[in-house]
Amino acid sequence: MNTIDTIINRHSYRGGYKQEKMPRKDLMKIVEAGLSAPSGCNKQTTSLIVVDDQDVLKKLHSVIKPPIGETAPAMICVLTRRIYAYRDKCFSVQDYSAAIENMLLAIVELGYQSCWIEGHITDLDQIGHKMAKILNVPDEYDLVAFLPVGIALEDMKPVKKIPFDQRAWFNSFGTNLKE
């Protein structure tokens, strides 16, 4: 698949995973793609923990409520630090978002599936904090998201997208893109 096809064909996968151990070389490629993402003022606020040990995965899943991605043979946990680039500008959210998107694309390119899990782990129930404790993450880092990774058990179901011409225009809002 070329880059554009990978981008267009990537969708969030929330189903079950085959219980095949992921090769470390593939996990390393995925993480390398994440760490290669752009970073505001090159502050490199994003760090990653790859979990492929089944005992550690069980501990992590014991605190993830509601359960999601529990059958994936690997998980990539996304950490961030608040490092200010200049004045009061911190680009940590943009940095980890770019890293996650790069990893999601690499995951699909390598024949795996995943889903960006963030919302319910950063809510008041502090799931990300509980996960960080299990992984011995220092206090200056926040665990803000995780990606379950593996081979999908089910076929991908494309999601319905709002039509292109209702979301993209040339030169002015609502201007038709057609020549």
TrEMBL record:
Keywords, ordered alphabetically: Flavoprotein, FMN, Oxidoreductase
The keyword Nucleotide-binding appears for this protein: no
Residues annotated as domain Nitroreductase: 8-62, 67-150
InterPro entries named in the record: Nitroreductase, Nitroreductase-like
GO terms for MF: oxidoreductase activity
A Pfam short name: Nitroreductase
This protein's record includes keyword Transcription: no
Cofactor: FMN
Family that this chain belongs to: Belongs to the nitroreductase family.
PANTHER family the UniProt entry points to: NAD(P)H NITROREDUCTASE YDGI-RELATED (PTHR43673), NITROREDUCTASE (PTHR43673:SF2)
Protein name: Nitroreductase
Taxon lineage: Bacteria, Bacillati, Bacillota, Erysipelotrichia, Erysipelotrichales
